[in-house]
Amino acid sequence: MLKKYCFAFLLTFFCVVSFFSQENSIEYAKKITISDGLAHNGVTSVLKDSNGFLWVGTYEGINKYDGYKLVTFKNTIDKDILTSNRVRSITEDHKKNIWIGTDQGVTIYKSSQEKFIKLYSNKLIGKDNSGPIIRKVFINKKNNKIYCLTEGNGVFLFDEDYKLINRFDPKVNEPNNLKFYDVLELKDENLVFITSNGVYFFDTLKNSFKKILDKNINYATGITRVNESLFLINLEYGLGVVCYNAAKNEFTFKEQILSEKQLNNLSIDDNGDLWVGTLNKGILKINDIKKNLTCNSVKPFKIQYFNDGLDRLRISSIISAANNIWVGTFNKGLYQFDIKETPFKKYNRKMDYKYGIASNSITHFSNLDSQRVYITGVFGGISLFNTETELFEPLPFNIPENYLLSVSSVFVDSKKILG
Fold this sequence. Notes:
Layout: H1 2-16, E1 30-32, E2 43-48, E3 54-58, E4 61-65, E5 70-73, E6 87-92, E7 98-102, E8 105-110, E9 115-120, E10 134-139, E11 146-150, E12 155-158, E13 164-168, E14 180-185, E15 191-195, E16 198-203, E17 208-212, E18 220-227, E19 230-235, E20 239-245, E21 250-257, E22 263-268, E23 274-278, E24 283-286, H2 289-292, E25 303-306, E26 315-321, E27 324-329, E28 334-338, E29 362-367, E30 372-377, E31 382-386, E32 391-393, H3 401-404
Antiparallel strand pairs: 1-28, 2-3, 3-4, 4-5, 6-7, 7-8, 8-9, 10-11, 11-12, 12-13, 14-15, 15-16, 16-17, 18-19, 19-20, 20-21, 22-23, 23-24, 24-25, 26-27, 27-28, 29-30, 30-31, 31-32
Protein name: Hybrid sensor histidine kinase/response regulator
Signal peptide: 1-21
Keywords: Signal
């Protein structure tokens, strides 16, 4: 019964304000740009920390956001706090300190002291005046080891006391050109690295790399876990569906989806929906990816789109945090999307349902029985909606079409007589 009242309330509210949203579009809840205090409209990374603050990495420093106010931290003439203002990656360790990967190394923000400390850069160790470029900072939650993925310098390993303890590089012909983009931890604590040269399996006990899936993937930028045995890998075009057999430690490339689209990054939210950032065309969203995708089959899925009405919207990062998706862009700032599930659903004339509503401006509702409700609109017409099946039904009586559009209100009395 609650479901029926919720439906009726929502339909009344939305129809009175005459909503016209398309079924396959996505609406954002908030947009944050340089006009709101963002350090730069080029957003590279986003983190929601354990204290509830949002950290936003940009081309020109880093922001801390409490939901109301943006505070900017960056190098200026008077302050030198970051290894570089060009931030690439942000993550939080078990001590609640923030790791900031930049184009010139790593900076730590010590939360308890509210202090930035330059941890590592080539300039600090007297090796060079630039680098290393840190593309991603990944923390193993089980042993608190920190992996810093670089461009051309392999992977740096730090311990929980922030000491550099090792550096790893796979054997490739031109290691200086190898870019590490992403990493995923397996159940046995081994790692899968995503690089500009394809995919590498990393044995954390032997500290050794092994190239995998090389027949199908020679370039990738991201990876996400659908479940323990199914991964999606972001390719130059489309997504690779990869199955993993943990018992045999085998990876199998199953197929490629969205192969006509250039994609940048991907994330699965708490509702099981897949969000994919494109190179220039905004966001794609696929609902219930975990239900539609298995190692044995790929069911047809509907894609929702978002590009904010722009010709070019390049997505840099996507994170899921506390009923929200935060999407960073290279040119238009930061978007927030509300993913909280709701019992409410929208129906409008554009959806072209059989027996559907004739107008988006609704005037009256009247219950026919416990499941069905009559609906009339400002510009005439009457429809019958079943709240159980969530479908419009044919009217249980005949009325000439020329009279149908003259109906602007409806009432059903206690004897179920329509008036």
